Amino acid sequence: MRSPGVLTSRGQAFLMLGVLTALAGIVLGYRDVTRIGILLLALPLLAMVWMRRRPPSIRVLRTVSPSRMLPDERGEVRALFTNVGSSRTPMYLAEEQFDYALGDRPRFLLPRMDRGEERQLRYTIRSRHRGSYPLGPVTLRLRDPFGLTYLVMQLPRTDEALVLPRIYDLGTRGPRGQGRGTEGELPQMVALHGEDDVSIRSYRDGDELRRVHWPATAHRGELMVRQEDRPTRRRAVLLLDSRSSAHPGSVHRPSYEWAVSALASVARHLIQDGFVVHLLTEATLEDGSAAHPLDLDRIMTVLARIQPATGSAGLDPLIAAAHSFTSGGVLVVAAVVAHDEQEVRNLAAIRQPGNTAMAFVLDRSAFDAGSPTGTTRDTGTLALEGVLSESGWQTALVGPADPVAGAWEVIHGSRRSEGVR
């Protein structure tokens, strides 16, 4: 993309001076003065015409190292410029465009390049906050030899700098009530009609009929299907409250960042403990990945890019998706803002008898005031936390000053928190 040639302050001065000189020459009858005025007037106009010639073709390729950074980690960007046109390029003043959260935008002189020639630029970036930051486009500025006009062009290619959420060590202690096998009741093992150790479970809505195990169905008197997972594989569902209305603030909302870091830390902890993990967010529901277990790299990528959803339908879609897992026994870990009583009650109903459900309950009033939970106790928040606790959830009420690891220990203690220490 290119902009039309624009006159510099020098070019504007030449234009005005040329007009005045030409008029003065005409009025006074001095032809030589008139010719000088016309020359002064023509110079910036000719420069603009000269700048409108076809610009050369330049390609830029970026490499970010490391490709996935942690907050406050320095990354190096290598930008390789290649002249892919048929003519030699002029010298450009170039500026890389990206969010100022990554640091100052680098400005540099891009020297002349012959056909096929390459030039490499290196610069560093660093961000305190997680997120997906676009790198580019590169803005090129070109001046004519007299400095009367300049041309602005952009190299449209963009790349991504990915900053992962902060991850905290949650220790080596596993979730309470989770032994070997799956959550809730264990899948039954049968060996009928010569089949060796076929893992089966009860039929659920949405199961394919081709997976029905007819001998076991006849034996039990109810529809049974072949179990997809090994009996020793444990399953966990992580649920993130992404309602924009529930998280105070606009940019880098403290409550939302706390929730994202908490679930990222729990995901790593559970995967290292041998769990199969599903991530329920509005983004994963939309792209269909919520139905499938995700590895740690994929979870970190999703949580690095995720943002609060404006115009959200609330927690109900996430709750409905979670019900398809909890009916078969699963560990549920939610990071939720105590914002709407009815939605919290719907969330509480996810837990099935015999299952383990945990929740980081974010005190919205504490995050809004910027104070720790221990000093700001909202009665409405306490009541909504009580709804989850009474339904058998293990909860921790948290504020902006509460550490994730401390909240995890409170949840393990299965007690009401008076502010995480």
TrEMBL record:
Record-linked Pfam families: DUF58 (PF01882)
InterPro entries per UniProt: DUF58
The name this protein goes by in its record: Uncharacterized protein (DUF58 family)
Spans through the membrane: 12-30, 36-52
The DUF58 domain, residue ranges: 200-283
Organismal lineage: Bacteria, Bacillati, Actinomycetota, Actinomycetes, Micrococcales
Sorted UniProt keywords: Membrane, Transmembrane, Transmembrane helix
Tagged with keyword Transmembrane: yes
Organism per entry: Ornithinicoccus hortensis
